Amino acid sequence: MGWDDSFRNASGYFLFLAMLALIKFLADKVKAARAPKPCVHGQFGKCPACQAAIEERQAEALRMTRRAHFECEWEKLRRSEVKRLSQKRLRSSEAYFAMEPREFEDAVMIVFRKLGYKVNQTAFVGDGGKDAIAWKNGKKYVIECKRYGMNSASGRRDLQILLAAKHDVEADSAIFVTTGRLTTPALEYAKENCIQYYDKGSFPDLINSAYGETEDLSEVQTICLECGMPTVIQLADDENSVGLCFNVTDEDRQRTPVGLRPIPHFVHTTINSSQLRYPDLDLDAPWCKDHQIPMHRVKGYRGEFWGCPEYPQCKNKGGSATRPPEVVESEAIARRTEITNVYSTIKESTRERLRNKIEAELIRHGIQKMFTPEQITALVVDRYLRGRT
Fold this sequence. Notes:
It is built from 11 helices and 14 strands. It is of the alpha/beta class. Among the domains are: 94-211, Trna Endonuclease, Chain: A, domain 1 (3-Layer(aba) Sandwich), CATH 3.40.1350.10; 346-389, no CATH class. The strands form 5 sheets. Strands 1-2-3-5-7 form a 5-stranded mixed beta sheet, sandwiched between helices. A 3-stranded antiparallel beta sheet has the order 12-13-14, with no helix packed on it. Strands 4-6 form a two-stranded parallel sheet. The radius of gyration is 37 Å and the shape is elongated. The model has no long low-confidence stretch (mean pLDDT 79).
């Protein structure tokens, strides 16, 4: 055997040993990877502390999901309560005595429309002694409103101005509405000229004839963000309305020491009496600081913005009129929840049929990649609901 043969044999032997070492190294790595490792607390297998931490994270995620759902319901109830209480407020004659003059004028015109009058309001300033011209049963009326204090009085001059406005527009009759009282000469002048009037004594009769009995406006409904239960609290005047929810959940019982009563939940809503001044108030609208009335959405070439209804006399703006992110998010959560609930009620065969049909339509138009599974689920629900109607 020559030197070259001996070198080749030795090289092959060392190469074989290197391969064995590599295989053993890889096997040890795989074994170590598969071997159980201690947790952060140094224990092998199931660790009570780690299991408790996992359960706590799961419970926290569940609480966050439930709270997001409760916040969505809270926002929906808040908006419906503003509308409900605003309509109720119009039925309470006492509420009219606390209104601002412009608000009072608008509210009274709503009352006359409820009574069957067709009403056209005049300008708030420079109206010529008449706040509105109305028609009913073929007759023409002029209406004047005065939001005075309950101890203030309207004199004969106010009625003379109204009578002149009646002759100016050739109306058949005149109606004078005030939250104060009429002086004796004013009462005599109204009777002599057949002017129909409503003062602080007869004004509730006008409201009751349009709306019926008065309503209680001292309470507002809201939702507890901890347990999701509807709760009734006292309506505040100019700040958030707050209260307590005494509903006890299982989590409250677990957190409360034995022998003690669970702590009630704090509940609140941003509704207050000042928000009920306008029945058609946009809940996101700022108020004009000069006229003290809510602004409305105006479409401009740069997007929507808040503008005063008294434009062009008032050019106050309230910034961008885009909807608040929390409102958009709450409505999105409500929409997803509604889609999930409806989707779960559809039969599985119907779901598959609608989904296959929609996916085929998307493929045919080449836009299937533009839709997520959640969006396709929403299309299935929409197609299902439209098929039922």
